[in-house]
Each structure stands twice: as C-alpha cells, then as structure tokens.
Write a structure and sequence with these properties.
Helix content: 55-70%
Distance between the termini: 27 Å
Number of domains: 1
Order of helices and strands: HHH
Strand content: under 5%
Length: 66
C-alpha cells in the first residue's frame, strides 16, 4: 500500500470529518457516540467498508487533535 501525503488545512479536515461521520452513520443506520463507534470497531462488528470509514475518521480526528 502506497502512502500519499497531502497538505490540508483545518477547515478541509473539519469538512472531511463531517463527511466521514455522516457516511458511517448512514452505513450503520444509527447516530452513535464516539465511544460506541470505538467499541463496535474493537469488537470487529463493522463491515470492511464501515471499518475503512471508521479508520479514516480516526485519522482525521488525530490530525484535528480531538
């Protein structure tokens, strides 16, 4: 897997965070807390697509220092 780095500003990260959170909520059919999402991810209950969304969401959170 190739690593691609892009320079992104905080505004773009916030927008991406919102997009990812919405997509994940639509995919799982519920509006869950960060803790609930973490528990689902750790227990392996996400589909491959849901896990990909969750992983990117966490990366964006880390870049936003949330």
């Amino acid at each position: 897997m190739a690593l691609t780095m892009r320079i992104i500003n905080t505004e773009a990260l916030r927008a991406r965070y919102g997009e990812l959170l919405h997509a994940l909520e639509v995919a799982i059919g519920a509006n869950l807390s960060s803790e609930d999402l973490r528990m689902l991810a750790e227990s392996g209950r996400f589909s491959t697509e849901e896990r990909d969304l969750y992983d990117e969401l966490r990366r964006v959170e880390l870049m936003l220092e949330r």
